[in-house]
Amino acid sequence: MPARFLFYGIIVLAVPSTAVSGQTQGARTTKTIKAIEYVGLTRSSEAFVQDVARVPLGMPVDRTVLDEAVNRLLGTGRFLSARYVVRDEPDGAVVTFTFAEHAKLTRITFTDNKKYSDGQLLEAVGIKEGERVDHFAAQMGREAIEAKYREGGYRDVTVTYDRERLDGTGELEYVIHEGTRIRIRKVLFEGATAFSARELRRKVQTKAAFWFFRKGAFDPNQVEADEARLRQFFRDQGFLDARVSHRVDPAKKPTDLNLVFVVDEGTRYTIEDIQFRGVAAFDVEDLRADMTSNEGAFVKEMQVNGDVRMIRDRYWSEGYIDAAVRAVRVFSEAPGLVRLTMEVSEGEQFRVGRIEVRGNSRTQDKVARRELNLFPPDDLLDLVEARDAERRLVDTGVFASARVLPVGDKPGVRDVIIDVEESPKSGDFLFGVGVTSNSGLLGTVVLDLKNFDITDWPRSWREFFKFRSFYGAGQRLRLEMNPGTDLSRFRLDFTEPYFRDKPIRLDVSAFFFERGREGYNERRAGTSVSFGKRFRRGRLAGWNGELSFRVEQVRVDDVDLFSAHDIREDEGSDILTSAKVTLAHDRTDNRFLPSTGDRFRVGYEQFGVFGGDHDFGRLTARYQWYKTLKTDPLDRKSVLQLRAEGGVILGDAPVYERFFAGGTGSIRGFEFRGVGPRDGIDDNNIGGDFLVLLGAEYSYPLFGDNVRGHVFLDTGTAGTGTYRAAIGTGVRLTIDILGPVPLEFNLAFPVSTGSDDDEQIFSFLVGSLF
User: Fold this and answer.
1) How far, in Å, CA of 643 to CA of 598, rounded?
2) What SS3 class is residue 661?
3) Residue range 335-350: average pLDDT?
4) Are residues 92 and 121 in the same domain?
């Protein structure tokens, strides 16, 4: 290699962003630039480079300006290197920019792939033709292909590609050596005596092949994770020395194997005694009484960790915000026994100082303050309440995130910073369409303002349409219109979560409703006002109470000639007034898709309290219980739901306020309002004075995160002695089209029916907001 070529090569490597030569001295000379040359451009145009560099002809040579131009060019990501050289000539200077451009991916191909198509592998790789050559991305693509094959059972797969070809031509060819597909025929456990193989199989994610439902793929990474999972399970059950490994045994076919987890259980340890160290603020016996770990019981890791959290939360809730708790296990001299000591570092007790809100540029301070149920200067600084407040602040929808931070150095006092990030959306305008077997085709238009302020009137129409007014008080305004073929409704709702800055929720609604019923048409228009309170302390802690009032006009018209007598009696317009009290408790883990916990609601509504045309009472109750029975490797849950619902009418109610059953959400297998007492020549359903619904549903993941299957049993009756029941199955999925759109399809088969019931084997629901 010539010495001159080697010298420039070293310069480029040592200073990749700029390389300057020529006769320029210092940062600036008196010569002006008479010409600019570009060398090495193959994919980028000179016009593009000129626009980025911003070096005009006629300017004095200034190295600082030229360096900045090179940095901007490199910042585009198009160039591997860029440098400039200034050449002096009698009538001026010539600046030459020299570039080495990134190569482009001209083609991505796959060779010798039989199991997966080119399209499937291209999706796994995650890079596309036309992007710049990136060896790191190419290597990650290779590893992604191997991982995909291993998940499919090809544990010996290898994938290669030619780096020199990629650099030279931009062609990326993955050559795949699939190897033999291996299936796991049995998952066995050796050395485990305390638990059955069936119970241990539920703890691992690796499963044996089962027809076309399970591939039985052997994934070494998954097997290692299963080893750790089993080891933790045994230690959680008191086997503190447990060890787990695995081996692979041949099966009947060369392409099959049996996976054997080898377990060395060791000794199962029992708690000899429980001691406390460092506890002065609480009675030790009170703490001991609240623990789930007991002397004489097995040492269970999850229980011990739960006891540590319980003791820590006791301290945190009493102002000991620096308290730390750890469990120390000491093996006893006697075999199989452990002495458990709860070591506590109490720290100082603090009360609440100033409370300051930060991060709220448009939202009022009180919207954040009122969710923190602490009041200076008398309250202890309850750190458990602070963590709960963080969750409540996010649940309001006003804030995207929230943190409650104790700060300061005063003895016995800590100020509190509520650090929030406002939600980026001040309002939503949503539209959609849906169709159900209950209500036909239904359109939806919604204006939803979640951080509304009824006192913040706009100064111009521009402010109004850009959501720059009516904002910042944490109120909610929702306008919803639902025109449809069988049902049409309009509703305007206003919510003040803290009425007069008290922990009382105010809801005001105005509504209009019209629907064609069996034998008549029903129209409703009215308003309602309700006051709700969430109880945070005392015997009703965690419960919600509500007192609501309703006034509406109900009109029954277009009555068929041979409709039932009860329907013809209610023809015309009625005024309804009512007062209702409701008590509810929700302990589920998710408001929309619960997988554990329960919900209970009971309510009584008395009609005629403010006058009107009808005087009667209605008592209703509903209970739902959820439990996760299984979680798959993708953290998707299989959930059992049990539900019970009932109601009774006290007095003489009009047809339109009675109980009906049947359809989605009630008893599938029967038409909407297909269950109930009948009357008249047209055999109209006139509703009943009582309602009983009992049901069970088991839902499980089918495909991805959005498709779930379910099997169910729906039973119940409404106003008749005959008890109905139906069993069925269905699919529930969610499609994201500018928002979640649920789809549900059910097949239900009645097994107990009444003589006049309207049955419906297939039912569906399609559509929501999008």
Assistant:
1) 10
2) strand
3) 94
4) no
